[in-house]
From TrEMBL:
Superkingdom of this protein's organism: Bacteria
Protein name per UniProt: Phenylpropionate dioxygenase-like ring-hydroxylating dioxygenase large terminal subunit
InterPro entries xrefs: Cholesterol_7-desaturase, Rieske_2Fe-2S, Rieske_2Fe-2S_sf, VanA_C_cat
Species name: Youngiibacter multivorans
SUPFAM superfamilies reported for this sequence: Bet v1-like (SSF55961), ISP domain (SSF50022)
Keywords tagged on the record: 2Fe-2S, Iron, Iron-sulfur, Metal-binding, Oxidoreductase
CDD domains: Rieske_RO_Alpha_N (cd03469)
Lineage: Bacteria, Bacillati, Bacillota, Clostridia, Eubacteriales
Signal sequence bounds: none
Repressor found in the keyword field: no
């Protein structure tokens, strides 16, 4: 994991008011809930008293109440009540505080700050300017037994398309890989496939390729977009569960008809079409060894792996900026 980053970790809809959601992210056992105002909150899913899972408790006003002895913690993890000490207790309860994690909610996504609290930034990674309220989206999730770096690399991999997806999006036997061109600007990676049928020609180098109308974007640490057309986009955020598992949240965005009911039906079908494509990838990606990718992992890369190399370099650089992870 890269330290000091906002990770997209859950869809907003996963945290229901009045309920506590247990979820493992970045190897951390977490309890998500909404306080009385509906604001999302996250604390370590372990009571400071005697270690019970807070997610087994209940939401009470602005707090979560531990199911064991009833200690209550607010959205900052501060202990607000110890039943056995009574309501009139004036004791300082701060020794019972639990660790909280900073979360924000935007774009119908819950983001978690994985880093030092004094380094929190305001910029949540998203594709602002590419999708807005004129788009309808529908989302589906899929758990992969893979490190999130492998899942992301797969989405930037133009070489696998005619092989893995030979009967779907990679139809046409375009196995010869030109480039591809890779741009990394303003924190966003851009690339597009430029594949051709092999008729004996030499592949073109990246600098002779262009970014096509259908292209890919990626923003660190874990959000990707496929610009299929002006009206159709697919966004995936790759929520790291731990070092070996990732949940892909696949969103199909579009504005094909402009009619709300029809567009919602299309989005609903579109997400499953994308899930079928992703399942073709999953079958192979879960077998990759080692589980996590790295810049100097000893793999014998191909010229067409340019976007993957760019991703690895940038990941390494971000980790090197004191963001070594935990
Ligand atoms: S373990 Fe949570 S209140 Fe005792
Ligand atoms: Fe694929």
């Amino acid at each position: 994991m890269i330290w000091n980053q906002w990770y997209a970790v859950l869809p907003s809809t996963a945290i229901k008011s009045g309920k506590i959601l247990a979820a493992k992210r970045m190897g951390l056992e977490l309890a998500f809930f909404r306080n009385g105002k509906g604001n999302a909150a996250c604390v370590e899913d372990k009571c400071s008293h005697r270690g019970a899972a807070l997610s087994g408790g209940k939401v009470k006003g602005d707090c979560v109440m531990c199911p064991f002895h009833g200690l209550e913690f607010d959205n900052n993890g501060a202990c607000r009540y110890v039943p056995s000490y009574g309501k009139s207790s004036v004791k300082d309860l701060s020794r019972y505080n639990v660790k909280r994690y900073i979360v924000r909610e935007e774009n119908s996504i819950i983001y978690l700050w994985y880093g030092d609290e004094d380094k929190v930034t305001d910029k949540l990674p998203f594709f602002h300017g590419f999708v807005d309220r004129s788009y309808v989206f529908s989302e589906v999730e899929d758990l992969w037994n893979s490190h999130y770096s492998r899942c992301i690399e797969n989405q930037l991999d133009v070489v696998h398309v005619p092989i893995v997806h030979h009967n779907t999006i990679g139809r046409g036997n375009k196995t010869l890989i030109n480039g591809p061109k890779v741009i990394f600007e303003n924190g966003m990676l851009t690339t597009s496939a430029n594949n051709e049928v092999d008729t004996g020609q030499k592949p073109k180098p990246a600098d002779e390729c262009v970014i096509k109308d259908t292209y890919l974007n990626f923003i660190f640490p874990n959000i990707w977009m496929n610009h299929i057309s002006k009206k159709i986009k697919v966004i995936i955020y790759f929520a790291p569960v731990d070092e070996e598992n990732t949940i892909l949240y696949i969103r199909f965005y579009h504005r094909i008809t402009g009619n709300g009911i029809a567009d919602r039906a299309i989005a609903f079908a579109g997400k499953y079409a994308n899930l079928i494509i992703e399942r073709q990838d999953k079958r192979v990606v879960v077998t990759q060894k080692p589980k996590s990718s790295s810049l100097k992992g000893g793999e014998k890369l191909l010229t067409g792996d340019g976007p993957i190399i760019a991703y690895r370099r940038m990941r390494e650089e971000l980790k090197g900026l004191g963001n070594t992870g935990k």
